[in-house]
UniProtKB/TrEMBL annotation:
<feature type="region of interest" description="Disordered">
    <location>
        <begin position="448"/>
        <end position="473"/>
    </location>
</feature>
<dbReference type="InterPro" id="IPR036866">
    <property type="entry name" value="RibonucZ/Hydroxyglut_hydro"/>
</dbReference>
<dbReference type="Pfam" id="PF07522">
    <property type="entry name" value="DRMBL"/>
</dbReference>
<keyword id="KW-0234">DNA repair</keyword>
<feature type="compositionally biased region" description="Polar residues">
    <location>
        <begin position="547"/>
        <end position="580"/>
    </location>
</feature>
<dbReference type="GO" id="GO:0036297">
    <property type="term" value="P:interstrand cross-link repair"/>
</dbReference>
<comment type="similarity">
    <text>Belongs to the DNA repair metallo-beta-lactamase (DRMBL) family.</text>
</comment>
<keyword id="KW-0539">Nucleus</keyword>
<feature type="domain" description="DNA repair metallo-beta-lactamase">
    <location>
        <begin position="270"/>
        <end position="375"/>
    </location>
</feature>
<feature type="compositionally biased region" description="Low complexity">
    <location>
        <begin position="533"/>
        <end position="546"/>
    </location>
</feature>
<feature type="compositionally biased region" description="Polar residues">
    <location>
        <begin position="605"/>
        <end position="615"/>
    </location>
</feature>
<feature type="region of interest" description="Disordered">
    <location>
        <begin position="533"/>
        <end position="632"/>
    </location>
</feature>
<protein>
    <recommendedName>
        <fullName>DNA repair metallo-beta-lactamase domain-containing protein</fullName>
    </recommendedName>
</protein>
<dbReference type="GO" id="GO:0005634">
    <property type="term" value="C:nucleus"/>
</dbReference>
<dbReference type="GO" id="GO:0003684">
    <property type="term" value="F:damaged DNA binding"/>
</dbReference>
<dbReference type="GO" id="GO:0006303">
    <property type="term" value="P:double-strand break repair via nonhomologous end joining"/>
</dbReference>
<dbReference type="InterPro" id="IPR011084">
    <property type="entry name" value="DRMBL"/>
</dbReference>
Length: 632
């Protein structure tokens, strides 16, 4: 192609580029006779994760003060925590989004169409002089990532990627527009599962599990005897429903509201979904019908029984597909049962897991990572945001940040450079001291532990705790038991709740942080009882429930745990605040330095990894614009 032909093609391409002025679009929507519109400056307190630097583009931010700071609003996808604040009376500005999301806004939320503007996917658009590109986010129907190319002084552009909520997949690396943002100035990253413990299975594996359970139990009981309930959001999880329908050769029953949304999404085919309950044993229910998932899963068997009786079934099997129910790494799909009810906790999430987040940042190699999910993100330099950013050390463009420091030095900002370096040095010293303290704590605990330290019992300060009534204690113990594996003994639960000042959330959190130690207690006791039984054949003891996920109903487990301490050959490590993985590493280091001549019998038990802790993320204040830690 000649240079002239290439120039002509480029010119034609520029002519085709859609150019939009949000202020004029907004004035037109208002039927205003004025031709200009002015806005106050965006305040420094405005959440950093919700606006693009050097623009007035606000992202998923509709619930903030009544003062309008912009006419340009972007909605990444149709989920309540993103569109919260929108209503049929919306008139604050133009909402830019994908075509599918625009249909949901107009037909479901009844947003006036004149305030909604659909942008195409994979096609650059100029909005207020900035190039904007929407690409697929692999989250829910209509979800997009937003790419911004913002002009600054001297013809230089700043590039920003806002992921919205997304699940990274390898095909994203092949998107030519996204490739153009490698080395971008910043990525606003969905950090829902930014924790090394959050390594979720693939969506395909989770879907296969749901299909297999429906198929197996359905064939075992036959039609009209077992009811399957699948919990979903207003929009999302459609891939699970479609696969169950296709592979189990059954329709999926939904209510009128869900069917309305499915029609908008293009799933109105009568061969897949139906509103007639008699046509299907697989029904879709609201998200909280089967139980509460935050801060830990609490099943609602009462409602399940009501549904079973009302609809005339013999058994009910429920599925809760969300990453927050991912409890056991080696047993990916946990099941909670009671009588004829089952609830399968399926770690099927549309958010990127920890490894996927790191892979995405490694691919884009941005100059900066800005977390968008969690707490305390109204300040970019908050302590919690810094902690999350540390996960991406070595993956971002650190050289560019160093160049900025050198530029500041040459401009005479020696004081600033020295302060940055001093803070970095202080942080390294503090981290080193912290590690040394942890190692000393572990060593001290290992040296001081006595033979009767079978269970950790932290006696709460009597001034800080109020002992509830006997009835209330029983209620707390039972509710705590429902959130733990069946092998946990009553004594262990009692220790947990009493040491946690009868706070259920804190008790469950402590258990999941130290599950290995608790299981070892039960395992060591059974080993001890087994040995006692072998030496005293006239003392019958049942060990049939010896598996880690079997029910420990034998009262001897509860009443005789203390007997383990009487055996000089058995010893358990004290439960400390140091994680099992750190303690193991430190112990291995010490054992390499000195080999003990008199080895002691170690407690046997499951080598199961520590349970994922769900409680490090707190719900933020909506007024500050933070998104909830609770995610699908």
């Amino acid at each position: 192609m000649s240079a002239q032909s290439a120039a002509t093609a480029t010119a034609n391409e520029r002519v085709k580029t859609l150019t939009l002025d949000s202020t004029q679009l907004y004035l037109t929507a208002l039927n205003s006779t004025t031709s200009t519109l002015s806005f106050p400056p965006i305040p420094s307190s405005f959440p950093t994760s919700n606006f693009i630097p050097n623009t007035r583009f606000l992202i998923d931010s509709f619930r903030h003060p009544s003062t309008a700071f912009s006419a340009s609003y972007f909605l990444s996808h149709f989920h309540p925590d993103q569109y919260s604040g929108l209503s049929p009376s919306w008139s604050k500005g133009i909402i830019f989004c994908s075509h599918l999301t625009s249909l949901l806004l107009i037909q479901t939320l009844k947003i006036p169409p004149r305030f909604v503007f659909a942008l195409p996917l994979n096609d650059p658009v100029l909005v207020d002089g900035c190039e904007v590109i929407l690409i697929d986010a692999n989250h829910c129907p209509g979800s997009v990532q937003l790419l911004f190319k913002v002009p600054t002084k001297n013809g230089i552009f700043e590039r920003y990627v806002h992921t919205g909520d997304f699940r990274y997949c390898n095909p994203m690396k092949l998107n030519s527009y996204l490739i153009g943002f490698v080395g971008c100035d910043a990525i606003f990253l969905d950090t829902t599962y930014c924790d090394p413990k959050c390594i979720l299975p693939s969506q395909e594996e989770s879907i296969d599990y749901v299909v297999s359970v429906v198929d197996r139990i359905g064939k075992e009981f036959g039609k009209r005897r077992v009811l399957f309930l699948i919990a979903t959001y207003v929009a999302g999880k459609e891939n699970i429903l479609v696969e169950v329908a296709r592979r189990c050769k059954t329709k999926i029953c939904v209510d009128g509201r869900k069917m309305e949304i499915l029609r908008v999404l293009g799933y109105g085919d009568a061969e897949v979904f139906t509103e007639d309950e008699s046509e299907s044993d697989v029904h879709v229910v609201g998200w909280s019908v089967l139980g509460e998932t935050w801060p830990y899963f609490r099943p609602n068997f009462v409602i399940m029984e009501e549904i079973m009786v009302e609809k005339g079934y013999e058994k009910v099997v429920g599925f809760v597909p969300t990453g927050w129910t991912y409890e056991v790494k080696r047993n990916k799909f946990a099941v909670q049962t009671k009588d004829t009810f089952e609830i399968h906790l399926v770690p099927c999430s549309e958010h990127s897991n920890y490894d996927e987040l790191k892979e995405y940042v490694k691919f884009l190699k941005p100059k900066k990572v800005i977390p968008t999910v969690g707490m305390d993100f109204e300040k970019l330099e908050s302590k919690h945001a810094d902690e999350l950013r540390k996960h991406f050390d070595g993956l971002i463009d650190e050289m560019d940040n160093k160049k900025d420091l050198l530029m500041g030095f040459h401009r005479g900002n020696c004081e600033t450079v020295e302060k940055v370096e001093r803070n970095a040095n202080e942080e390294r010293v503090m981290e080193r001291n912290k590690n040394m303290f942890e190692m000393k704590t572990v060593e001290s605990n290992d040296m001081d532990v006595s033979s009767n330290d079978v269970s950790y019992v932290h006696k709460p300060d009597s001034q800080d705790s109020t002992i509830p009534s006997e009835e209330e204690r029983e209620r707390i113990i039972e509710e705590t038991r429902d959130s733990m594996p069946k092998w946990v003994t009553r004594d262990q639960i009692l220790d947990l709740v009493s040491s946690s000042r009868w706070n259920i959330v804190e008790a469950v959190s402590n258990f999941y942080e130290h599950e290995i130690e608790f299981y070892e207690q039960v395992s060591v006791f059974r080993t001890f009882e087994s040995a006692s039984h072998a030496s005293s054949p006239n003392s019958p003891i049942s060990l049939s429930n010896s598996g880690p996920f079997r029910s420990s109903t034998d009262e001897s487990v509860n009443t005789n745990l203390s007997q383990v301490s009487k055996s000089p050959s058995l010893k358990l490590t004290r439960w400390s605040n140091i994680s099992p993985s750190k303690r193991k590493k430190n112990t291995e280091k010490r054992s390499n330095k000195k080999v003990k001549s008199n080895s002691k019998l170690e407690s046997s038990g499951s080598k199961q990894p520590t349970i994922t802790s769900f409680f490090s993320k707190l719900l933020p204040d909506d007024s500050k614009g933070g998104k909830t830690g609770r995610k699908n």
